[in-house]
Write a structure and sequence with these properties.
Elements (H helix, E strand, L loop, with lengths): L2 H15 L2 E2 H8 L3 H13 L3 E4 L2 E4 L9 H5 L3 H11 L6 E6 L3 H9 L5 E6 L2 H8 L4 E5 L3 E3 L4 E3 L1 H7 L4 E6 L3 E3 L3 E4 L2 H12 L1 E7 L11 E4 L6 E4 L5 H9 L3 E4 L1
Length: about 250
Amino acid sequence: MYAEERQQEILRRARAQGRVDVMVLAEELAVTSETIRRDLTALERAGVLRRVHGGAIPVERLGFEPALATRDAVLTAEKERIAKAALAEVPEDGAIIIDAGSTTGRLAQVLNTERELTVIVNAPPLATLLAARPNLNVIMLGGRVRSRTMATVDDWAMQALSQIYVDVAFMATNGCSVERGLTTPDPAEAAVKRAMIASARRTVLLADHTKFGDDHLARFGRLADVDLIITDTGLSAAAAAGLQHAGPEVIRA
C-alpha cells in the first residue's frame, strides 16, 4: 500500500470510528508505529485530522474548520494541476464566478491575462489579485467577511447573486460524497455557494482528493448540480467512476 493510499484508509477509519489509535493502525496496516505517526502528521497538515494522545480524531468531530492559510499550504502541487486544468473551462469572454477557496484561488492566480472577462468573486484577496489585471472587470460581492475563509456571506452577497447570470461558476467545497453531495461547515457560506450555482449556466467543482467521501454540516448542492469535477490523481479511478455515475464528468489532473 502506497503512503497516500494508507493515509486515505486512516482518514476513512477515523471518520467511521470517530478516532484512530497509532498502535492498532500499525498492526492492522502492517507498518511501524513511526510510519503511522508520519501519516497522522501529514493528515493533520492537510487539515483533516487532529492529533491527540495515542492517535487522532477527524476535525469535523471537533467542529473545526481549517483556516484558508492552513489549507492553502497543503497539496500545493495537486491544486496547481487542478487550476491549470480548469483554464480549459474558462470562456474567452463573458462572465465567471470564482468561489472563495484555496484551490479556486489557484485558478485566479493562473487566469489568462489576455481574456476579456467579468469575474465575480466573494473573497477580498481574490478581488485584489484580479483587479490589477486591466482586461478583467472584477465584481466583488459584498457582505460579512468570514475571517476563517475570507468569504463574504449573508444578504448583500445573496442579493447581488440573485440579479446576475454567468457562463461558469468555479466552485470550492469542504466535502463531497455521492450520498450527501457538496457540503461545507458554515450554513451562511453554504447559502452563498447555493446561490452561485443557481446563477451559472455551468458549474465546475475544483477539489483535491481529500475532499471526497467527506461530509459537513451544511449541504449546498447535489452532484447532479455539477457539470464537471476537476480533481487530482489521488482520487482513485473507482471513486471517480462512482461520482461520474451520479452526474458530473470527472477529470483527474
